[in-house]
Amino acid sequence: MDYLPLAVRLKDQAVLLVGGGQIALRKASLLVRAGALVSVVAPTIEAELAQMIDAYGGRLLRRPFEESDIADQRLVVVATDDAVINQRVAQLAQARGLYVNVVDHPDASNVIFPAIIDRSPLLIAISSAGTSPVLVRLLRARIESSIPAAYGRLAVLAGELRQQVKEHLRPITQRRRFWEHLLQGRFAELVWAGQEDAARLYAQEQLSAADSLPASGEVYLVGAGPGDPDLLTFKALRLMQQADVIVYDRLVGAGILDLCRRDAERIYVGKARSNHTLPQEDINTVLAERARRGQRVCRLKGGDPFIFGRGGEEIEHLMEQGIPFQVVPGITAASGCAAYAGIPLTHRDHAQSVRFVAGFLRDGRVDLPWAELVQEGQTLVLYMALVSLPLIAAQLLAHGMRPSMPVALIARGTQRGQTVVTGTLDTVEHILQQPGLTAPTLAIVGDVVLLRERLHWYSS
Ligand code: SAH
């Protein structure tokens, strides 16, 4: 992050604007809207700009910039079309430790103006740190069209009620829930319809009713998919954004955690191979205990919670305790990795069934129904098999699978840095020596692996 967006209160603060043309005019209109005391300095100042500054009680200095102009300023904005002047003012201002913006020159600036969507008091700022103004414009158009103008009024009414709600509903979780309910339901509809008095009345009724309702907790068992945040479901995202607590493990990457509610508490429960930070029983206890306190707990799991995810054990425990829960399916590693690596798991000609197999070692052994696994026309997807793959390959060979059976290993599937390595059952040792095969890794065994080359797949 090269810039931190801060909302600055400029009311009655001195701001120097160097330049008197159209670009200066655009910046001036923003600065006066924020209540700044703007001094404009330029040999010629366009009439529209001069009128605006006059109307807001600013100063017009119709002469070239002088070094003393920057004394006592809070912010300096440079908007001339003379690169030499722009540079000089920027250097002088920076040397004095002032905030300075040179329009369209992020390199010479230490602050930049983000694009804004103004629904005052609600403001949305977008910035690409100067890298792509067009991208910012496109995004802004998208957001502009999806946020009704009355959102500002919604914020005003919420602001009026804030103190009262705070006094009335003491526990923060109860307050938060009250606001979520109010801002997503009839109250918002009434404000958007312009019926503000009715909205106020409705809010008062809801506030009296909220008092008598005990806050009840819940657990969401959410499948977060194999890593690419775009593979989350809408439901997963919604619950991630309303949960008070996020309980996650190693399979859940930063890109996904970033989409959770910012102020939610995060509890890491580990779960790498042979590095169980919290034993399963303790995870069960944490989930139940938090929900009993009235919190909404999002247990984020890699892939799908019910595929090698011990989701079944977690809900069993919750059921015993009488704690309400929801399960949200996710894209399991097999689907995600196969799609991103270009390997169809089934195919009319090559595989009529697919089997998901857990390859973890127990006491140095893998116990699997080998005879069933070597059947023709079946794709095997091996989870947790990076370490045990040589053992599994030896067993499959011993039970009659042909040595030339294609094998693919997909590491960090769907994520940046996804690595796909292919070979055959009798070259597994060699495949495993290829670079980039770090956990999590999934193995696919079957003729469908060859389709990857036939389809000329390119890695996304
Ligand atoms: N519930 C998960 C599986 C958990 S078991 C799911 O449905 O996907 C953990 C195993 O999943 C890992 O050992 C690895 O084999 C596989 N896995 C999970 N995410 C993966 C990814 N992004 N790329 C490759 N394999 C992955």
Q: Which overall shape is indicated by the principal axes computed on the Cα atoms? A: globular
Top CATH class of the largest domain: Alpha Beta
User: What amount of the residues lies in strands?
Assistant: 15-25%
Query: For the terminal residues, how far apart are their CA atoms?
Result: 25 Å
Figure out the total of helices.
17
Helix content: 25-40%
Task: Give the total of domains.
Answer: 4
Distinct ligand kinds: S-adenosyl-L-homocysteine
Q: What is the radius of gyration computed over CA atoms, rounded to a whole number of angstroms?
A: 30 Å
Mean pLDDT across every amino acid position: 92
Task: Draw up the topology in text.
Elements lengths: L13 E5 L3 H12 L3 E5 L5 H9 L3 E3 L13 E4 L4 H13 L3 E4 L12 E5 L2 E5 L6 H14 L4 H18 L3 H13 L1 H7 L3 H17 L5 E6 L10 H9 L2 E4 L5 H4 L7 E4 L11 H13 L3 E6 L9 H11 L3 E4 L4 H9 L11 E6 L11 H4 L4 E6 L5 H10 L7 E6 L7 E6 L3 H5 L8 E5 L5 H4 L6
Helix pairs in contact: 1-2, 5-8, 7-8, 11-12
The site of S-adenosyl-L-homocysteine has 23 residues, from helix 13 and strand 17.
Summary of the model, kept short:
This protein has 460 residues and is an alpha/beta fold. The chain has helices at 22-33, 47-55, 83-95, 133-146, 151-168, 172-184, 186-192, 196-212, 234-242, 254-257, 280-292, 311-321, 333-341, 370-373, 389-398, 428-432, 451-454, and strands spanning 14-18, 37-41, 59-61, 75-78, 99-102, 115-119, 122-126, 218-223, 245-248, 265-268, 296-301, 325-328, 353-358, 378-383, 406-411, 419-424, 441-445.
Give structural notes:
The chain is of the alpha/beta class and 460 residues long. The protein folds into four domains: 14-113, 3-Layer(aba) Sandwich (Rossmann fold), CATH 3.40.50; 151-210; 218-331, Tetrapyrrole methylase, N-terminal domain (Cobalt-precorrin-4 Transmethylase, domain 1), CATH 3.40.1010.10; 335-455, Methyltransferase, Cobalt-precorrin-4 Transmethylase, Domain 2 (2-Layer Sandwich), CATH 3.30.950.10. The protein contains 17 helices and 17 strands. The strands form four sheets. A five-stranded parallel sheet has the order 3-2-1-4-5, with helices on both faces. Strands 10-9-11-8-12 form a five-stranded parallel sheet, sandwiched between helices. Strands 13-14-17-15-16 form a five-stranded mixed sheet. A hairpin with a 7-residue loop joins strand 15 (406-411) and strand 16. Helix 7 (186-192) packs antiparallel against helix 8. The protein is globular, with a radius of gyration of 30 Å. Bound molecules: S-adenosyl-L-homocysteine. S-adenosyl-L-homocysteine (SAH) binds next to helix 13 and strand 17. Residues 226-227, 251, 301-304, 307-309, 332-333, 337, 383-384, 410, 412-415, 440-442 line the site of S-adenosyl-L-homocysteine.
